[in-house]
């Protein structure tokens, strides 16, 4: 490498300086997060991914950052999104764990838990002394789970009896609790339960042979006559509309993951292009490589711009709530997720190509980024389903049902 050219001295992938929109305490906290990720996660993420093992020893340190549900702690929606992007930039699996636990389970406690449930569970969950999961998807029902949910909850005095199965449940092999969704067998309404994962009748099996998010422990969950106390039913959940609130938020966060994945791809590809010599000079000096790097950067900046505007709309809605008014409803969240994940797929593909043969081994970082992008492209609604959600909104015609 030409010692006069250091990749760390080159412009950041945040090429239009979106981070400057954060206030000073948020920028300081972001730098604290970056230091933590550089020290505790980056040196180990490849090995965790290769072995398919989750680093449980990381949890007390991760909990100590004080980043659980940032908006509830007074941070902006933009900061919350950039936190997810930055975690993903370092390791998509750890970011996914964080999202499942904090943005789904802990946020559900904030939003839908009774005061007793919050007093009992919230502090431990926020500090990762206990871990949570979000059990919605089923073996035969993914995108159509709203109308096709097969898991049932039957009231029996002061308890509910749960029967059914869930699939692809992140953190499902080791979590202490799950937000478990089931259909009330009497009313047909969707209910949410705080399910102690150690209860009799709950079985958990790890899903193996994944090509993406290998550090994340996804599980198949089976429920056979599991008895849950009425005190562990989420008091504020009465229909699938409540589910949509959480899904809207997590869909937006996955849009931020698509940003983070592109930041990671650009970081790896640009460094490699500057350091890798062929034909007597860095491959970054060839026109075709520069064109690909610029395309990657353009995709990343466009995705960051869209997600930043989404965060601004969320902030306005949060600070100035109006009955019946949502600045970012599911169609907008769906567009953000579908657009950014499509740009991400192109970006990581270009990056993998720049690394040539070295792009298919995890030693160089890009293979892991490339593979993990496939999970982001699919979960929280595939690109096709999200496209149709937005299409229905702008035409008034549903192409789904």
Question: Would you kindly provide a brief summary of this structure?
Answer:
The chain has 401 residues and is an alpha+beta fold. It is 50% helix and 14% strand.
What does this molecule look like?
By secondary structure, this protein is α+β, with helices and mostly antiparallel strands. The chain folds into 3 domains: 7-126, Butyryl-Coa Dehydrogenase, subunit A, domain 1; 132-232, Butyryl-CoA Dehydrogenase, subunit A, domain 2 (Beta Barrel); 240-395, Butyryl-CoA Dehydrogenase, subunit A, domain 3 (Up-down Bundle). Helix content is 50%, strand content 14%. The chain is built from 12 helices and 9 strands. The protein has helices spanning 24-41, 45-51, 59-63, 77-90, 92-112, 115-126, 145-148, 240-275, 287-319, 330-354, 366-378, 383-395, and strands spanning 132-135, 152-156, 159-170, 177-184, 190-196, 202-206, 218-229, 277-278, 281-282. The strands form 2 sheets. Strands 1, 2, 3, 4, 5, 6 and 7 form a 7-stranded mixed sheet that branches. The termini are far apart.
Give the key terms.
single chain, 401 residues, alpha+beta, Butyryl-Coa Dehydrogenase, subunit A, domain 1, Butyryl-CoA Dehydrogenase, subunit A, domain 2, Butyryl-CoA Dehydrogenase, subunit A, domain 3, 3 domains, seven-stranded mixed beta sheet, 12 helices, 50% helix
Cα(first) to Cα(last) distance is: 57 Å
CATH topology of the largest domain: Butyryl-CoA Dehydrogenase, subunit A, domain 3
Helicity, in percent?
A: 40-55%
Q: Looking at this structure, what is the CATH superfamily of the largest domain?
A: Butyryl-CoA Dehydrogenase, subunit A, domain 3
* Tally of DSSP helical segments: 12
pLDDT < 50 stretches: none
Number of domains: 3
């Amino acid at each position: 490498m030409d010692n006069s050219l250091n990749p760390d001295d080159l412009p950041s992938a945040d090429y239009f300086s979106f981070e400057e929109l954060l206030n000073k305490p948020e920028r300081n906290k972001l730098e604290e997060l970056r230091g933590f990720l550089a020290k505790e996660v980056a040196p180990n993420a490849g090995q965790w991914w290769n072995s398919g093992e989750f680093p449980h020893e990381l949890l007390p340190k991760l909990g100590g950052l004080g980043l659980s549900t940032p908006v509830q702690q007074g941070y902006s929606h933009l900061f919350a999104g950039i936190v997810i992007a930055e975690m993903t930039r370092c390791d998509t699996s750890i970011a996914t764990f964080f999202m499942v636990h904090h943005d789904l389970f802990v946020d559900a406690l904030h939003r839908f838990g009774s005061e007793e449930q919050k007093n009992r569970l919230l502090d431990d969950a926020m500090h990762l002394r206990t871990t949570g999961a979000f059990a919605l998807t089923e073996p035969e029902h993914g995108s159509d789970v709203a109308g096709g949910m097969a898991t049932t909850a039957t009231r029996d005095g002061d308890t509910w009896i749960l029967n059914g199965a869930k699939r692809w449940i992140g953190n499902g092999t080791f979590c202490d609790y799950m937000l478990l969704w089931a259909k009330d067998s009497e009313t047909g309404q969707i209910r949410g339960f705080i399910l102690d994962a150690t209860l009799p009748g709950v079985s958990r099996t790890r899903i193996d042979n994944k090509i993406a998010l290998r550090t994340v422990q996804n599980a198949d969950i089976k429920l056979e006559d599991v008895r849950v106390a009425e005190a562990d039913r989420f008091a504020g959940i009465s229909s699938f509309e409540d589910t949509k609130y959480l899904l809207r938020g997590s869909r937006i966060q996955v849009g931020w993951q698509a940003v983070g994945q592109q930041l990671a791809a650009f970081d790896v590809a640009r460094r490699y292009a500057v350091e890798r010599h062929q034909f007597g000079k860095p491959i970054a000096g060839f026109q075709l490589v520069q064109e690909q790097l610029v395309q990657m950067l353009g995709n990343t900046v466009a995705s960051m711009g869209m997600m930043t505007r989404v965060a601004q709309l969320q902030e306005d809605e949060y600070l100035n709530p109006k009955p019946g008014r949502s600045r970012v409803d599911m169609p907008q969240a769906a567009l953000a997720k579908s657009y950014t994940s499509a740009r991400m797929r192109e970006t990581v593909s270009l990056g993998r190509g720049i690394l040539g043969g070295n792009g298919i081994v995890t030693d160089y970082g890009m293979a892991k980024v490339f593979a993990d992008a496939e999970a982001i492209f699919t979960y929280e609604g595939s690109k096709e389903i999200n496209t149709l959600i937005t299409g229905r909104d702008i035409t008034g015609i549903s192409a789904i049902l």
